[in-house]
Design a protein that fits this description.
With about 450 residues, the chain is α/β, with parallel strands linked by helices. The protein has twelve helices and 22 strands.
């Protein structure tokens, strides 16, 4: 795996007149982190192929090493994981950075390992809620203590005194990662009986839970339950165990693909994204359908997606939209920037989960869009965006949020320079994003 790269304090994106070409996105963060943990809990050796190499996946890899799991790097973004049902070390201090998925899935798995563990992260991770997950785990018999603030990291996990066989309920409104954590750890609870997890309330980001179930299935554990049911119940049969699939290939990241597909639509294209296609299991593949619905031309292949538009140099305008984007919360940030190029006001709904991500994305997005000349109204779970009458050059604050940095590069399609502060924050999921972007822009022909 590569070493972290150095970044400047800021990076200027020149006005974008035209973008075209082919780009391959790195492996899916969501699949990579899930597969790393399940490979460590599976019987046998697993070869992970196409694994994302970024800050978030590095957090999970380093945590597994600290827990005694043998990892051997392979060529071309591969990793061999030597798994077992239990982590070899029963004591460890783990640093989870700002990786919510790593933190929440590790907490659930460690709660019933019979060991003594401490988990901490960066300051923002210590602000992000964790109490719904911990409450569910404690109901099952886990012993977890907060070390500073109730409901927040850092925390300490002690050996569970008992394991309850009762059904456990978890709220779905705050984060789908809480349910993912419980589902992935369910094999540890199903040693003496079925494990039943009942969803309480509305589940946000349902496609991410569907992704969890798919990865679990590929590691040999089937879950009974319908993620689309209004009051879903999930059951993992007694004796269920993860088994290595041998070789596990990770498809390209659909959230990362959204920036390039949006670029192809806003700047003429065509831009083709390789590494995922029409059969993708990731929820953010739905962004391509949304893009088509507002006027872009979108084509699918077995392992590629392509986006383009009829106009360039500001001649193309998207149809205004009013959309519930709960199913694609990450890719919805790309759509918020594309709303700058709509023919009229647009509205993004049901995006309240933005407030508890790497930053308060609702507030951050509203502030930065206004710098570009848009009029923005932000509510608890929505944004209303009126496109600029005249675009402005702007310096975009990124709030240590990788998706703010990547999404706002598309604002340069408005004909003015956009300065991205702290571009290095893209290392969280896409370390060479700006190089890949530049390759598409370097194909621009003078006068085209």
């Amino acid at each position: 795996m590569s070493a972290p790269r150095a970044y400047p304090a800021h990076l200027d994106v020149a006005p974008i007149e035209r973008a075209r070409g082919v780009v391959r996105v790195p492996g899916s963060k969501s699949i990579s982190i899930r597969a790393l943990l399940l490979a460590a809990l599976a019987e046998g050796e697993t070869e992970l192929v196409g694994l994302l190499d970024s800050d978030d996946t590095r957090v999970m890899r380093e945590a597994l090493v600290a827990l005694g799991v043998p990892l051997v790097p392979l060529a071309q973004d591969g990793l061999r994981v030597f798994g077992s049902a239990r982590f070899p070390r029963d004591q460890a201090d783990l640093f989870v950075g700002n990786s919510g998925l790593s933190a929440r899935t590790l907490i659930a798995a460690l709660a019933f390992m019979g060991g003594h563990y401490r988990l901490a992260g960066v300051a923002r991770m210590h602000e992000r809620p964790i109490d719904d997950l911990v409450t569910s785990l404690v109901h099952l018999g886990a012993r977890i203590a907060y070390l500073e603030s109730p409901g927040r990291l850092p925390l300490e996990i002690l050996p569970a005194e008992r394991t309850s066989g009762l059904p456990v309920r978890v709220r779905g409104a705050a984060s789908s990662q809480f349910l993912t954590g419980l589902l992935q750890a369910a094999t540890l609870l199903a040693e003496t009986g079925d494990c039943c997890i009942e969803l309480e309330g509305t589940l946000i980001s349902r496609p991410y839970v569907a992704l969890t179930l798919d990865v679990m299935r590929r590691f040999g554990v089937s879950v009974a339950g319908d993620v689309d049911a209004p009051a879903a119940t999930f059951r993992i049969a007694q004796g269920s165990r993860y088994r290595s699939p041998g070789r596990f290939a990770i498809e390209g990241d659909a959230s990362s693909a959204s920036y390039f597909l949006g670029l192809g639509a806003a700047a003429g294209g065509p831009v083709r994204v390789q590494g995922l296609g029409r059969e993708s299991v990731q929820g953010d593949i739905g962004f391509a359908e949304v893009l088509s619905g507002i006027g872009a031309t979108v084509r699918f292949g077995p392992d590629w997606i392509e986006a383009s538009s009829a106009g360039v140099r500001g001649g193309f305008r998207f149809a205004p939209f009013d959309l519930d984007l709960n199913h694609i919360p990450d890719a919805a940030m790309t759509l918020a920037v594309l709303a700058l190029f709509a023919k009229g006001p647009s509205r993004l709904r049901n995006i309240g989960s933005w407030r508890v991500k790497e930053t308060d994305r609702l507030a951050a997005m509203a502030c930065e869009l206004e710098k570009l000349g848009a009029q923005v109204r932000a509510g608890d779970d929505f944004l209303e965006i009126e496109p600029p009458r005249t675009f402005c050059a702007a310096t975009i604050k990124t709030y240590d949020d990788h998706r703010m940095a990547m999404a706002f590069t598309l604002a340069a399609c408005g004909g003015h320079r956009v300065r991205i502060e702290d571009p290095g924050c893209v290392a969280k999921t896409f370390p060479d994003y700006f190089e890949r972007l530049d390759e598409l822009l370097s194909r621009t022909e003078p006068g085209s």
